[in-house]
Amino acid sequence: MTSVLSRQRELEVLRVLLYEHRDRCRTQLRLLNQPPPDGDGGTEQPALAALTRRRLRDLEHALDSFERGRYGVCTACTADIRIDHLLRQPAASRCPGCADADHRHRM
Predict the structure, then answer these.
(1) What was the pLDDT predicted at 100?
(2) Please, are residues 64 and 86 in contact by the beta-carbon 8 Å criterion?
(3) Which sequence ranges does the entry mark as zinc finger (dksA C4-type) (predicted)?
(4) Longest Cα separation, the chain
(5) How many Cα atoms occupy the beta-carbon half-sphere of 14 within 13 Å?
(6) 41-92 pLDDT per residue, tens
(7) Residue 96, Cβ neighbours under 10 Å: how many?
(8) Where does the pLDDT of residue 34 fall: very low under 50, low under 70, confident under 90, or very high at 90 and above?
(9) Which pTM does this prediction carry?
(10) Would you call 34 helix, strand, or coil by DSSP?
(11) Euclidean distance between CA atoms 42 and 28, whole angstroms
């Protein structure tokens, strides 16, 4: 029972982390969507904005999974995703084994 309570507490901490990451992405997008002060659009800004939008989408999906009680559960094998993996990749929807297998399959 203690390990279940411990995992729930750790997931609650991760939920706060997800909200912080989401808010940071929203701020980054607002800044990236502003015209640069020198008028030079640069080639990196659209790429950074696209990457930030994708990360924001992943974070919002993770928060939705959390609200549905599915956060931290692999969408492929239904095993619990290790907390240390979620700390490195808070928006992860697959365990490292399934993510690696999916990556190898796509190559």
Answers:
(1) 83
(2) no
(3) 74-98
(4) 59
(5) 26
(6) 555 688 899 999 999 999 999 999 999 999 999 999 999 999 999 999 999 9
(7) 15
(8) confident
(9) 0.80
(10) coil
(11) 16
